[in-house]
Amino acid sequence: MIYSAVRKKNENDQDVDLEIKFNVGDLRRVLELGDDDDDPIIIPEHLCKGLWCRMGFTGHLNGKYLKTMFSKPYKFMIHYVVHALSHRKGAYDETSDYIMNIVTCLVLNRPYNVSQVIFDHLVDNIKGDKYIMYPNDDR
Asked: Do the beta carbons of residue 122 and residue 28 sit within 8 Å?
């Protein structure tokens, strides 16, 4: 749960603090990703690496995952997933583990808890903000 406060003017033109609570359920409801709390956020490594070999991956399976090392159709799909869901500011050729988990679930048509992953990265990105409070660090 993320707790925050927003200052706004009331009907008497006075500043009031409005408390806002935001959790993964709110994110799921707004984004309508169709996932569920019970869906996994970690896919077995052997499943991912086996699929990557079938997707034409030419690099080392224990090295960096570069989208240029996949066959053309999958490279195109990975490109869009990285740009849509990655929280990085550059180096879009390299994909992270959670992106490859999402790609694996998309290709295999398996459920995946994308909302939880987005929420976890949202919390990590805003930690340290002076307006955010984390009682017991409950996500």
From this structure: no
For the chain, the domains span: 40-112
Contacts 24+ apart (CB under 8 A), 1-10: 1/135, 1/138, 1/139, 2/122, 2/123, 2/126, 2/132, 2/134, 3/132, 3/133, 3/134, 3/135, 4/131, 4/132, 4/133, 5/131
Whole-number pLDDT of residue 131: 47
Q: Which of 40, 53, 138 is nearest to 98 (CA)?
A: 40
- First vs last C-alpha separation in the chain: 5
Q: Tell me how far apart the alpha carbons of residues 107 and 89 are, in angstroms, rounded to a whole number.
A: 26
d(CA 94, CA 110): 23
pLDDT in tens, 120-133: 888 887 775 544 44
